[in-house]
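Supplementary Data S3. Sequence and structure tokens for construct A.
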Amino acid sequence: MDRNSLKELLKKQKNTRNFSHISTRSGERIRPDIIRSNLLTTKEQASALNYNTLKTIVDLRIGEEGGGSKNSAYPDAHIDHLPIAFGNLDLKKISEWLMMGEVEKIDSFIESGYRTFSSDFKHEVRSFFSLLLNKDNLPMAFHCSAGKDRTGLLAALFLLALGVLKDDVINDYMETNNRIDAREMAEKANEYFRSTLSVKLLYPERSMQAFETIFLVKQSWIEIFMEETNERFGSVESYLKEEIGLDIEMLKKIYLLK
């Protein structure tokens, strides 16, 4: 599937939200002007959260996805491009697996990306938190394409750094499944392959399952990410402090409301 077709599928999804409804283990709430999202293509996405303008947009997409380009919906926002090739992202290979209905390979590819994320993308994680620690960057949104994997993992690290309970972090991550209609996305992608590309899918039902896997999130994936980070670095907190160099107390001072 080409970039423009995928973009058309993704931009209608409603995976834009902030963290203001989430409390830390000690009861503080999170300020509302830090936003996670899928593709930011309309003003309505942030204005629904009472923000008509954004100062900063952190774009996690690689160049092949259109990452780093000017955002027409928010032309005055500064774009910080932090491309993350999640799981050594290879769109051509993924398209082949989708057409062949390789559900297990798709699942394994995504799981592997979660397993190695904290090691593979230290520079990007460090840059992300550096942006967060500058209050002048707010209101800020960070996004990838679907707003589920790369965005979901950075959101999880942000929440864990603030002292949000693990179960609440997982709940925020899993909320994506309520906001992206994976079945509808799979059906549209399937139709694109059949009509636009004139591709005959050898195993149509398995291809549908593979498409759905691409567009949903699984609790096992985020748990693998946390477990691997704990195993490799002692804890998520140790990872953030020692590997990323994050000033956690400063982050809390900026983002937590009493």
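Construct B, processed identically:
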Amino acid sequence: MIRGLPRIPVRGLMLRPLAAIMGRDLKRMARERGRLVSALVRPLLWLVIIGSGFEAFLGQAAPGDYHAFLVPGLLGMVLLFGAMLASLSLVYDKESGVMRMLLAAPVARGWIVVARTLSSAAVALVQSLMLVIVLLPLGYFGAGVSLPILALGLGATGLTCATLGMLIAVWAKGLENFAVIMNFVIFPVFFLSGALYPLEGLPSALLALSAVNPFSYGVDLLKHAMLTGMAQPFAPDFALLTDVAVLAGFVVIGTALAALRFATDSVREGLAALASTRGTA
């Protein structure tokens, strides 16, 4: 340590970048009001239009409140789209040059990925809470809802979606490449999650894909919070502990893979830039 300079704890060095990145992304979200409006309008349209259509179609075959069944899936939709779009900022920062300043900071490259993942999850969580506030007067969060499991479901699903978005971001070469990969991933992940219809009765091939889809367990965890009193086929598909274990495992393994890829890619780009500078000199 250099004499005369204040000693900064390691914990402070870790928390300051995290707070800065999360604050920056949350401020960006607050400025993009169109993005906030679309995050609310999209699930409400699904609830009114798709919900009414499916309930009329399933009314006799599967008695139950399909609108209530749809709410956990719509919360998952907000978390999925919100976290994936927030992960886009990593690719944008790489193209705009902001990432070079982060890489120059005395922070481990893997910590940058962790901070970005938490930041994307926080953005998605804020958007999902906004939907909860809108739906609360409509009676979808009554006495039968388990608030602790709901909070766990929102947090775990948000982290899972953010991890998925970060895995795409660290492999994407640019904004256009990220958009292509995201559209290729996000819709199968959403439609094979049980968010819009029960998984029971799906063909075996689609059921197998749903079982390896981490987002399925996030939606199912939200169902445990809100649909405990519902009978099949609208009841949760997996055990509560299974949902938590799968989500936790995916977040840990996915974040580790994203951090490893980001660190390797950053070193490779740094060496290429150094070689280019020496070549021009």
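Confidence is low (pLDDT under 50) at residues 1-10, 270-279. The chain is about 75% helix and 0% strand.
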